Automatic annotation (TrEMBL):
Record-linked InterPro entries: EvaA-like, EvaA-like_sf
Residue ranges occupied by any dTDP-4-dehydro-6-deoxy-alpha-D-glucopyranose 2,3-dehydratase domain in the UniProt entry: 2-200, 214-417
Pfam families reported in the protein's UniProt record: Hexose_dehydrat
GO molecular function: lyase activity
Record protein name field: NDP-hexose 2,3-dehydratase
Length: 424
């Protein structure tokens, strides 16, 4: 990966909005759009989330990218062991330019050649006549706080052992165990790979779980019923509490994220040079599951989390999912539940079952990193508060057979479980 980073000729430089080639602020709405009308736009959003005991309303910029992308992973049995073909791929927003991505990671604009560059390598492996079995194929959400109703097709196909895949220096085969070891390191396996790995078929036997699969689905349906999420797109111009400057759009309180512009050079990408806007969080996020055993069976504490950009409004999320700095100005009782139990792990003053820093989607976010952790909970946390439920990893895996149930942050940690990076 170091060699691929050195050979790629990668350069990412911040630029003011006026120097973004092909991008500009639309007359009237003030949305940041590409002149072709393709790719995506940065627009405004008016959000309202209402539950039985709370009402939240706010405005924010959001990425509107209605097209569905493909996150495709090819696997093959090699010497009796299933291996996965990973790509060393550069994304402009990542601190480390090259990470392990799926075999194919492409938006529809890329797949149809809207960028005018080279075709997507190995796309033919996902045509039905070129693989022997589909192991997973499901639409999954992306970041519901930063994308407006964005979905990707997460697909895993197995090809026959005798089929030869053309070699290329950007592609290598990895066993599932090797990927598990790499998921224990900071910033190596990208978000899209983690999402697809979470969708792999897993053991979903509910014997010993606190709640049956039917009870989990019923609880989740109730949470969606009780939480009303309304997301109304509005113009970026004049968005309350947000200001547009020469080089960024920012929140007046310095919280949440900025919208910035970058110019990119990359010899190994389909297009060798381009510019684009990115969302840049103001600080590192914290994403964590609390875990404990009931009758010897591992369980994870999920929350039913409302996010305005999700198609269904609510999905299952890790116990804690936030950027602590965004709540520093608030009293303790208005900060996220269970954050105090996780912060010692963040500060490395307490042990964890799992701890690593992973980047979020580097194609749309700049320097977006989160500390991902699994923290052992004490025996006193048997009855969680409303909106939280103990489920087994297998139950989460069964829900991933269907889209819009498990959010992308929870999928990252479930991928760590599936690959052995987390020992529960």
């Amino acid at each position: 990966m170091e060699e691929r980073a050195e050979s790629g000729g990668f350069r990412v430089e911040p630029v003011p909005f006026a120097e973004l080639d092909g991008w500009g602020f639309e007359s009237g709405s003030g949305d940041l759009v590409h002149r072709s009308g393709r790719f995506f736009r940065i627009r405004g959003l008016r959000a309202r989330v209402e539950s039985a005991d709370a009402l939240q309303e706010w405005h924010q910029p959001i990425i509107d990218q209605p097209e569905v992308g493909l996150l495709g992973l090819v696997c093959q049995e090699i010497d009796g062991v299933l291996h996965f073909l990973m790509q060393a791929k550069m994304e402009p927003g990542n601190p480390e330019p090259v990470q392990l991505s799926p075999t194919v990671q492409a938006t529809r604009s890329n797949l149809t050649g809207a960028h005018g560059g080279r075709g997507v390598r190995l796309l033919e492996c996902f045509h039905s006549e070129n693989h022997s079995e589909v192991l997973a194929d499901v639409l999954q959400s992306e970041h519901g706080s930063w994308f407006l109703r964005k979905n990707n097709r997460n697909k895993v196909v197995e090809i026959s052992p005798d089929r030869r895949v053309p070699e290329h220096p950007d592609f290598r085969w990895f066993s599932l165990g090797a990927l598990g070891e790499l998921l224990g390191l900071d910033g190596v396996v990208n978000m899209d790979s983690r999402s697809v790995l979470a969708c792999l078929p897993a053991h979903t036997d509910e014997n010993g779980s606190l709640h049956s699969d039917a009870e989990v689905r019923s609880w989740f349906a109730g949470q969606r019923f009780e939480q009303s999420v309304n997301a109304e797109p509005v113009g970026l111009s004049g968005l309350p509490d947000w200001v547009r400057e020469r080089e960024r759009v920012r929140h007046v309180g310095g919280r949440y994220f900025d919208v910035v512009g970058v110019a990119v050079r990359a010899r190994s990408r389909e297009v060798r040079g381009w510019s684009q806007p990115l969302l840049r969080p103001v600080a590192q996020g914290v994403v964590a599951f609390l875990a404990r055993r009931f009758g010897g069976v591992p369980h994870l504490l999920v929350q039913a989390r409302a996010e305005p950009g999700l198609v269904g409004g609510v999905e299952l999320a890790p116990t804690v999912q936030c950027t602590p700095e965004n709540y520093a100005h608030l009293p303790a009782d208005r900060r996220p539940a269970f954050l105090d139990m996780v912060l010692p792990v963040v500060e490395e003053s307490a042990p964890a079952l799992y701890r690593a820093v992973h980047t979020e989607e580097g194609g749309r976010f700049r320097d977006a990193e989160s500390l991902y952790a699994v923290v052992e909970a004490g025996p006193d946390l048997a009855d969680p508060p409303p909106g939280y439920l103990w489920v087994t990893p297998g139950q989460l895996g069964s829900l991933l057979l269907h889209g819009q149930y498990v959010n992308v942050q929870a999928r990252t940690l479930l991928a760590c479980v599936n690959t052995g990076a987390v020992r529960l």
